[in-house]
From TrEMBL:
InterPro entries in the cross-refs: AAA+_ATPase, ABC_SmlMolc_Importer, ABC_transporter-like_ATP-bd, ABC_transporter-like_CS, Mo/tungstate-bd_C_term_dom, P-loop_NTPase, Transp-assoc_OB_typ2
PANTHER family associated with the record: SPERMIDINE/PUTRESCINE IMPORT ATP-BINDING PROTEIN POTA (PTHR42781), SPERMIDINE_PUTRESCINE IMPORT ATP-BINDING PROTEIN POTA (PTHR42781:SF4)
Top-level taxonomic group: Bacteria
Name this protein carries in UniProt: Putative spermidine/putrescine transport system ATP-binding protein
Organism per entry: Alloyangia pacifica
Lineage per the UniProt record: Bacteria, Pseudomonadati, Pseudomonadota, Alphaproteobacteria, Rhodobacterales
Length: 355
């Protein structure tokens, strides 16, 4: 293991009698952004607290640039932190907030660093303003500048955009990417928003019930999910129970036959769950070989695309996303057929429960 970046190795942690982290392992490459992603209660904030030094894990090691931080006090870890509530001092100006923690520097050097950081977050003109007079997005940028002021070895961000509206979140995500390109600081961000994680981070750590389900780039995790949970959590995934009938063949619960373009690692008769992304289904108004029979419910226009909601014969909902072609659309309850791109289907053991 290289002595660069941040390494989380074999970390366990419990609160009272409940174990909340189970053998957590992942690396954050030096100068890169990694997002911890998962539902509420999955353990991602606990990991961030362990990295920050706010808790000491029961077992395992946390190291930064080769230095073991596991039992180092918070103030000696050289970390910058940005939280959802900003935690700015309302009685201090923007410049004073950014300078907080720099009292040990000579006055001129302190002024130069604050000036440089305000320029980085595009708030030079607001240096003498007070936080209550700023927008939420501006306050968040002040918080980022303050976190960077002490020249930390790594930056920790806990749901940094969670309190902002969607349009502002998108704007600040782009700002964070720009700043990261300029600064290149090792960053760990906690979020439950999969779109935010994919927009900001080069690597995702997907967590569930205190365990790491998968680590990889957004593309790897979306295209090659390691589990049914990951498949359903990152993007939408239609799910159907099916039985393996041959080396590359499936029969769904409603009797539809699916011929895969590859050999499956399951014995004939095995119960599986087959999943499809909405964009990997095409629509037909007439029966087609290998198509999934469904009943049309509704269609929603999303720019150039049409999002189709339908139901399988057993009542299971299924969703497709197709290009709007201006052709005839089915009516509610009409029979339709959804043709899967079999190269994009995923198959998981049937002992997983459909969410």
């Amino acid at each position: 293991m290289a002595d660069t970046g941040l390494q989380i190795s074999n970390v366990d942690h419990s609160y009272e009698d409940k174990q909340v982290l189970h053998n957590v392992n992942f690396d954050v490459p030096d100068g890169k952004v990694v997002a911890l992603l998962g539902p509420s209660g999955c353990g991602k904030s606990t990991i961030l607290r362990a990295i920050a030094g706010l808790i000491t894990p029961d077992r395992g090691r946390i190291s930064l640039q080769g230095r073991d931080l596991t039992k180092v006090q918070v103030r000696n870890r050289k970390l910058g932190m940005v939280f959802q509530n900003f935690a700015l001092f309302s009685h201090m100006t923007v410049a004073e907030n950014v300078a907080y923690g720099l009292a040990h520097l000579p006055r001129q050097e302190r002024r130069e660093r604050v000036s440089r950081l305000l320029e980085l977050v595009r708030l030079t003109a607001f240096a003498n303003r007070f936080p209550p007079s700023l927008s939420g997005g501006q306050q968040q940028r002040v918080a980022v500048a303050r976190a960077l002021a002490t020249d930390p070895s790594a930056l920790l961000m806990d749901e940094p955009f969670g309190a902002l509206d969607r349009a502002l979140r998108s704007e600040l995500q782009a700002e964070l990417v720009r700043m990261q390109d300029d600064v290149g600081i090792t960053t760990v961000m906690v979020t439950h928003d999969q779109e935010e994680a994919q927009a900001v981070a080069g690597q995702l750590v997907v967590m569930n019930e205190g365990r790491v389900e998968q680590v990889g780039s957004p593309e790897e995790i979306y295209d090659h999910p390691a589990s049914l949970f990951v498949n359903g959590f990152i993007g939408h995934a239609n799910q159907q129970h099916a039985t393996v009938t041959g080396a590359g063949r499936l029969r769904t619960a409603d009797g539809s036959e699916i011929a895969m373009n590859r050999t499956l690692n399951y014995l004939p008769g095995a119960e599986v769950i087959v999943t499809s992304r909405p964009e990997d289904l095409s629509l037909s108004l007439t029966e087609q070989p290998g198509a999934i029979a469904a009943r049309f419910d509704r269609a929603v226009v999303m720019g150039r695309f049409l999002t189709i909601d339908a139901k399988l014969p057993d009542g299971t909902a299924i969703k497709a996303q197709v290009l709007r072609d201006g052709g005839p659309r089915p009516g509610k309850g009409d029979a339709i057929w959804l043709i899967p791109d079999t190269s994009r289907l995923h198959v998981f053991p049937g002992n997983n429960q459909i969410n």
